[in-house]
Amino acid sequence: MSITSAFFDIDGTLTSFTAHEVPASTLRALKALRESGVRIFICTGRSPSQAIKVLDTIPVAFDGYVTYNGQYCLLDEHLDEQGTAQSAGEGIRRSRVIAEHPLDREDLALILDWLAAHPTVVSNFGERDYVYFNQVDEQMRATWRSLGKTAPKVYVDSPRRALDHPTYQVSPYITAEEEAALVATLPHVTGVRWHPAFTDLIPADGGKPAGMRVFLDHFGLDMADAIAFGDGGNDITMIEAAGIGVAMGNATENVKAAADHVTDDVDHDGIANALRRFGAL
């Protein structure tokens, strides 16, 4: 197959939980894809503002940015033929929203009721330009420490904001069993989990493949000619949807089982090696 588009998760895929930076081999690979005419996209569970912490370190612009696990998609309309930009961070800052899918307010009200009945549960809430927690505890701080220098700034605010502001993702720190019980009460919500400590609650008809299709349709490309890279549970549907789904060597076992190919880990040239394996470099 001829690869015409490539989608990249951020945490555990572009960056590792050890070095907390994008490897030089990955930066070279992104530049080579851009120069060869392959459309490249971010596909992350992070918000745009949280993604910038990593994107500012990548000296290559992306064609588009799938954020909030597919719920908020931004297109960079200012790329010239060479994709000129000082960084991917500059690219996302100058992009415009071409698709958005916030959580249903009925579901948000039910989530707030559940949190009120479980007052010790920490949860993250994601709006367009603002991400906040209802409270913080040591478990939440530990997950933020694991992100190292890519960890976004922490804000604490009232979760009641969610009833008056479009909210694209809610991420409570709950077990898989608690997640299943909560989601069963929410008519239009599903959970996608990339970390054992918390889940991302998003619209049931959303997810990373929905964001991928926004850009594939925009550019007239086929999913069969896409390659996607991921490492966590929220990447499984993306990996399954793409013509070539690649699991990083550091991916969880369920992600590896869903992939067409398992490459090396992020710190050992996993992305570059897979792209060479499939003839894209």
TrEMBL record:
Q: Which Gene3D superfamilies match?
A: 3.30.1240.10, HAD superfamily/HAD-like
Q: Which NCBIfam families match?
A: Cof-subfamily, HAD-SF-IIB
Under Gene Ontology molecular function, one entry of this record is: phosphatase activity
Q: Can you name the source organism?
A: Bifidobacterium vespertilionis
Task: Quote a single Gene Ontology cellular component term.
Answer: cytosol
Supply the alphabetized keyword list. Answer: Hydrolase
- InterPro entries for this protein: Cof, HAD-like_sf, HAD-SF_hydro_IIB, HAD_sf
Record carries keyword Coiled coil: no
- Give the protein's recorded name: Cof-type HAD-IIB family hydrolase
Q: Which domain of life is it from?
A: Bacteria
Sorted alphabetically, which PROSITE patterns does this protein's record hold? COF_2
